[in-house]
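Q: How would the structure tokens look for this protein?
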Amino acid sequence: MSADKDGISGTSHDNLAMDVSSLRQDMAKMQEILSRFTSEAGGQAARTVRNVGQTVAAQVGSTASGLASTGSDMAASATQQIKTFSNELEDIARKNPLGALAGALVIGIVIGLIARGR
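A: Here is the predicted structure in token form.
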């Protein structure tokens, strides 16, 4: 009976050793899978960050282009308004030369007072 116990005990020991070996192999596979998953997730995160960066850069470029265009339009509009205003002043000066001289005199006095106050 003692031999039976030793045989059963030996078989149990062999089964336990096989189970531990199988468990080690499974753990190694899990570690490899986890490592691959982490690597792929890191690569995907890097691609996502790169794509977001490119999108933001494109939007900033588009916004800057829009601002430049708006600034150019505003400058053109201001130039046109100044030309219109100077033409109107010229017309007023031709229609009423004494009034234009009086206006220039008043403007000169105001500028002189402002400069003197400094």
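The chain has two helices and no strands.

The CA atoms of residues 8 and 14 lie 10 Å apart.

Upvote if useful.
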